[in-house]
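Hello Y.,

Per our agreement to keep a running log of every chain we model this quarter, I'm adding this entry. I've kept the format consistent with earlier entries: sequence first, then predicted structure.
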Amino acid sequence: MLRGRPVALVLGGLVTALSACAGGAAPAGRTADVATARPPAEATAPSSPEPAVTPAATAAGVVPLPASIPVRLTIDKIGVETPLLKLGLNPDRTLETPSMANVMKAGWYTGGPTPGQNGTSVLVGHVDSRNGPAVFYRLRDLRPGDAVKVTRKDGSTAVFTVYKREQVPKNRFPTQRVYRQATRPELRLITCGGGFDRSIGHYVDNLIVYARLTGSA
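Predicted structure for the entry above:
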């Protein structure tokens, strides 16, 4: 689950805030957290200049893929095999997150690029619930070099390779670093982490995994 106070992030015209995420297994009786997002008025372009990227200039010479809705996420290293829900914005313009009936499913934010397109695609999932571990419970076990696969509606599979993982306090979320719209195909996996603050009913950190497109099938 996703838990915690909102934290600002920039994502394809949005500033998002993860107020719900996942960390360790929730004690009995605790409800899951969910991520939230707040759109910024000015985040329609990269926040800092990046070199122009032609199709051949992406990671490992991989050509970006055309748009296609993601339907499934597979991360063999941590035993994740889940359909992907479509997530939009709530009425208060916070990021919608998987419902508590779907803690074992991850979701794709539909306001950003589809995984494999140029730009930054974002997938979120719960870390746990009152019943135990959720879909992103083992996200903390990913390391640079691990593969993340996203099956798309057109039948193709976008293959990403993890290059960074970090855990950050929600009140110091690295907005620009995480959600800036890249000029190459990038993927972010986000959940909650750190300790659980019973006074606010949320985890205190966010866990973020960064990956880039390195192949397709």
